[in-house]
Design goal:
The protein has 469 residues and is of the alpha/beta class. The chain contains 14 helices and 17 strands. It has helices spanning 7-19, 25-47, 79-85, 101-110, 114-117, 133-139, 177-190, 232-238, 246-276, 308-311, 337-344, 360-364, 428-439, 455-464, and strands spanning 53-60, 89-95, 124-125, 143-148, 165-168, 196-203, 284-288, 294-295, 301-302, 312-313, 315-319, 326-333, 373-377, 383-390, 393-402, 405-412, 450-451. Strands 1, 2, 4, 5, 6, 7, 10, 11 and 12 form a nine-stranded mixed β-sheet that branches. It binds zinc ion.
């Protein structure tokens, strides 16, 4: 027995005389903010991961895979991507179908190869007979929104179809990705608890003319003479009209990397906001690119040829609540993205007809071989290429057909990743075999793409991106 009565009596006395006494009141007041913070934290924990559920498809235009830490780059260009990838599924060998913004994004949106959707720059528009992935999400009742930096990802080409909101922000350099992300986050904030969503996010931040945002990147001394903010020299140099030395090149690469470091911070900002807003843990984030970039590995700049530096892109697919990270070694292609999201969302749509293959089985079993071949073609030269993963290596055949001559190149990318030793003269049987397989990639257009007058405004926008002279 406690002094002064029963425990209950003692408690009553404590409450009456001590805790609510005038002397104690200031202490209780002091505790209130702490209690409030605790209550908010508990509520946030409960809310976190129970909100709207959906899909985010992010395209970082012009991002070559090998400049990311997760793909082996030695510099600190992508700390967030690398960390996020540790619990996601990273596709080590993802290749695009064409190193050009318009056809490549259209392949991502339709799951069709370029000659099937038929949309090539500067003025063709996707046929109404072909459905895009966003249209399928919209028909299934998803809230759909796109935040694009325009140019060849302008809505007019067919990209805006199926979106409730198509925010064509345009390219504003440098640091424009921050605004693009801000607008996307506004949309995220507008989502309600039981909404399902599909968001497409696109940025040109690492695209030429490489202008690193304030505070990113460092270069000792003034920029080399060749540098021009317009990027005009890049075009001239890539056509061999201007000489370029190794320091010039180093400078451009350092700007590219600095822009990537900035984009990585924006990715962090976007994904952390998804968490903070309580977006469902069963939502999916896909990060990829429409093509890479070349830095004179094969005598050119920007993205004009079809070697690995322009075709090999990052592909990361992660469920937000995923805990175990895996890496998939199988070859995969951009056309595989649409059927993958279609299957993950369990959509049913009579208009769905993809040439790509769903990667869902590889998300479950990383050893799964999705495909052993990957195809790509080019815009700036009559070159088509086939990659084949074989027991004895990863080979790439390039066939260029000029009106009066032909050129063949064959590389073993598993032993010669920089593609410097042409084996077409020594491995003739293999080259022939791959060429026969390449010829089999002879699809017909699914529907005729329309051609539409570009209009002055679009011409100006494409010029600003260096696409039109
Ligand atoms: Zn692009």
């Amino acid at each position: 027995m406690m002094r002064g009565g029963s425990p209950r009596h003692h408690l009553r006395r404590m409450i009456a005389t001590r805790w609510f006494s005038r002397e104690r009141l200031p202490a209780v007041k002091k505790l209130l903010p702490v209690l409030l913070v605790l209550a908010t934290a508990v509520a946030a924990l409960w809310w976190r991961g129970r909100g709207p559920e959906g899909f985010v498809l992010i395209s970082i235009d012009t991002l070559r895979a090998d400049h990311l830490g997760a793909y082996g780059y030695p510099l600190d260009t992508s700390p967030f991507f690398d960390e996020f990838a540790e619990r996601g599924t990273l596709f080590e060998k993802a290749f695009v179908q064409l190193p050009g913004t318009l056809p490549s994004h259209m392949s991502i949106f339709t799951g069709l190869y370029p000659m099937e959707h038929g949309v090539y720059p500067p003025d063709s528009v996707l046929s109404e007979e072909i459905s895009t992935l966003p249209e399928m999400f919209q028909r299934a009742g998803y809230r759909t929104a796109a935040f694009s930096e325009g140019g060849y990802v302008a809505g007019r080409y067919g990209f805006s179809r199926g979106f409730d909101v198509y925010d064509d922000i345009g390219k504003s350099k440098p640091g424009g990705a921050a605004e693009t992300v801000r607008r996307a986050l506004e949309f995220v904030d507008s989502l309600k608890g039981d909404d399902r969503f599909f968001i497409f996010l696109h940025t040109y931040e690492v695209h030429d003319p490489y202008m690193a945002p304030e505070g990113y990147g460092s270069w000792p001394g003034p920029p080399p003479d060749i540098w021009q903010p317009s990027g005009a020299n890049l075009t001239a140099a890539s056509k061999g009209e201007l000489s370029f030395d190794s320091e010039d090149l180093e400078y451009f690469v350092s700007l590219y990397d600095a822009s990537l470091r900035f984009v990585d911070d924006q990715l962090r900002r976007f994904v952390e906001h998804l968490w903070d807003r309580g977006v469902s843990r069963d939502s999916w984030v896909v990060i990829t690119s429409d093509h890479g970039e070349e830095f004179f590995e094969h005598g050119s700049l920007v993205h004009r040829q079809v070697y690995a530096e322009t075709l090999h892109v990052p592909l990361l697919i992660r469920r937000l609540g995923q805990r175990r990270g895996t890496r998939v070694r199988s070859l995969v292609e951009s056309v595989d993205i649409a059927p993958t999201l279609f299957e993950l969302a369990d959509l049913e749509d009579p208009a769905a007809s993809f040439s790509g293959r769903s990667l869902v089985s590889a998300l479950k079993n990383p050893a799964e071989v999705i495909r052993s071949q990957a195809y790509a073609e080019n815009l700036t030269s009559p070159t088509r290429t086939l990659l084949e993963s074989r027991e004895d290596g990863l080979f790439q055949l390039l066939v260029t057909r000029f009106p009066d001559s032909e050129r063949r190149e064959l590389f073993d990318l598993s032993r010669d990743p920089a593609a410097l030793r042409d084996l077409s003269g020594t491995r003739r049987a293999l080259a022939r075999d791959l060429e026969i397989k390449l010829e089999a990639y002879d699809w017909q257009a699914r529907a005729e793409a329309r051609r539409e007058d570009l209009g002055e405004e679009q011409i100006e926008r494409l010029r600003a991106l260096g696409y039109l002279q």
